[in-house]
């Protein structure tokens, strides 16, 4: 028996291969199934089983493509209401994979249709549990993503109560030595306090995980429903798409039009400029948004742009083209791209540099906009007088920013303030809009 963990760092997502006697099960696969196919070829093994722990909100899964390519059976909870060919996998159901056994455990809480997969070794002993978004290392899954989408919907309070019982009655009674393999790690928006560790044991989680400590059900509900991070705009769309099954990865990304730099863009179309902010500030298409390529590009794209909103992508160079398109595909946004191109000749708009010393001496002469998340703002206000509008809410709230003074935008390090400045600038007439960028470290 062999367990292999695969990590998508951009989405802090873990997927898994379990292999026994040249048979492979893939759990919670990423959009592009190539890495699992290559692993199977390398080990002269066959992918027979694909398991989805729930319909994911934060990424588009490749379960349907992998199943169709390899003739593998997809297993999901009956409660998911999957629209693709599948076999139901709920409490009491088992899959024989080579010499090991996979056992379904219904663990609602993050979603009503969540399951965990218990791996029994060749001797029939509990060896590992694949917990999806139910139990993380140092956390449990957030309960507020299924109030409006999915085959089953549930309020956050109802799901939080289900999570209480799933953890206490289904997972914590497992032997302490059982390995815990979650679907996400630190940086994911599917929880609020995940560890950077990629695995643990039931015993360690019972000792150290704040969500598993002794408390009443009501106290747990209060704990779990408080201080959760923001919900990106694309999450509901991803749940619906995963329930249906996504189109094939390679063909879908090849459908994105690659345009020459001098292509005439549609008037008033949204432009997402992924170049570094220094390049963007020197010249960009008017009204474009500077969403720099980086570790969390997919999350921020899906937090700023609506899942029915078409846009152009501007990239730094030809080498970056397919990488950026691939990232959009991970959240199902490749279908929205009107075209991808390098910096066009119409990139003549510039961003003004601010007088940092004047701002330090006379901050009252500026409207300061804090675009950090609510949790960060609650933890520490950097400028007491700042107008607080987190980046995911900014496009819908630009009109709240007064235009009687120059505007200074800040976040925690400079990435979000670059995007926010480019969003605010077209909506503020008559005064300059400045990006405090990484100078925020001086405050």
Automatic annotation (TrEMBL):
It comes from the Bacteria. Residues 265-315, 362-425 form the Rhodanese domain. InterPro entries: Metallo-B-lactamas, Mito_Persulfide_Diox, POD-like_MBL-fold, Rhodanese-like_dom, Rhodanese-like_dom_sf, RibonucZ/Hydroxyglut_hydro. Transmembrane segments: none annotated. GO terms for biological process: glutathione metabolic process; hydrogen sulfide metabolic process. Keywords: Hydrolase, Metal-binding. Pfam families: Lactamase_B, Rhodanese. GO terms for molecular function: hydrolase activity; metal ion binding; sulfur dioxygenase activity. This is MBL fold metallo-hydrolase. It comes from Nibribacter ruber. The lineage of its organism: Bacteria, Pseudomonadati, Bacteroidota, Cytophagia, Cytophagales.
């Amino acid at each position: 028996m062999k367990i292999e963990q695969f990590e998508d760092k951009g989405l802090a997502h873990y997927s898994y291969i379990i292999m026994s006697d040249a048979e492979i099960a893939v759990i919670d696969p990423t959009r592009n199934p190539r890495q699992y196919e290559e692993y199977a070829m390398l080990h002269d093994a066959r992918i027979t089983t694909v398991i989805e722990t729930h319909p994911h909100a934060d990424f588009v899964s490749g379960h349907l493509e992998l199943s169709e390519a390899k003739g593998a059976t997809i297993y999901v909870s009956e409660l998911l209401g999957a629209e693709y060919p599948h076999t139901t996998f709920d409490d009491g159901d088992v899959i024989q994979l080579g010499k090991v056994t996979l056992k379904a455990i219904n663990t609602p809480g993050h979603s009503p249709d969540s399951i965990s997969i218990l791996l029994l070794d060749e001797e029939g002993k509990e060896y590992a549990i694949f917990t999806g978004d139910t139990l993380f290392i140092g956390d449990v899954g957030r309960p507020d993503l299924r109030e409006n989408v999915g085959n089953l919907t549930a309020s956050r309070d109802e799901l939080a109560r289900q999570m209480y019982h799933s953890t206490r009655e289904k997972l914590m009674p497992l032997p302490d030595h059982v390995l815990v393999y979650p679907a996400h790690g630190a940086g994911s928006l599917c929880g609020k306090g995940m560890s950077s560790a990629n695995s643990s044991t039931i015993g360690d989680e019972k000792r150290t995980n704040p969500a598993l400590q002794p408390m009443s059900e009501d106290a747990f509900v209060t704990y779990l429903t408080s201080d959760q991070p923001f919900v990106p705009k694309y999450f509901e769309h991803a749940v619906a798409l995963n329930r249906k099954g996504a189109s094939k990865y390679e063909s879908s990304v090849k459908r994105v039009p690659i345009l020459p730099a001098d292509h005439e863009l549609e008037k008033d179309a949204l432009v997402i400029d992924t170049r570094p902010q220094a390049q963007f500030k020197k010249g960009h298409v008017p009204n474009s948004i500077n969403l720099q390529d980086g570790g969390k590009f997919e999350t921020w794209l899906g937090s700023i742009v609506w899942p029915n909103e078409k846009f152009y992508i501007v990239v730094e160079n030809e080498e970056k083209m397919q990488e950026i398109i691939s990232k959009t595909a991970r959240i199902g946004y490749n279908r929205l791209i009107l075209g991808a191109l390098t910096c066009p000749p119409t990139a003549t708009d510039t961003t003004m540099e601010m007088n940092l010393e004047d701002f330090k001496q006379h901050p009252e002469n500026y409207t300061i906009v804090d675009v950090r998340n609510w949790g960060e703002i609650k933890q520490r206000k950097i400028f007491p007088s700042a107008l607080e509008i987190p980046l995911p809410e900014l496009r819908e709230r630009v009109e709240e920013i007064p235009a009687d003074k120059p505007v200074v935008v800040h976040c925690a390090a400079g990435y979000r303030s670059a995007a926010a400045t480019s969003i605010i600038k077209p909506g503020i007439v008559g005064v300059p809009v400045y990006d405090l960028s990484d100078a925020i470290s001086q405050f």
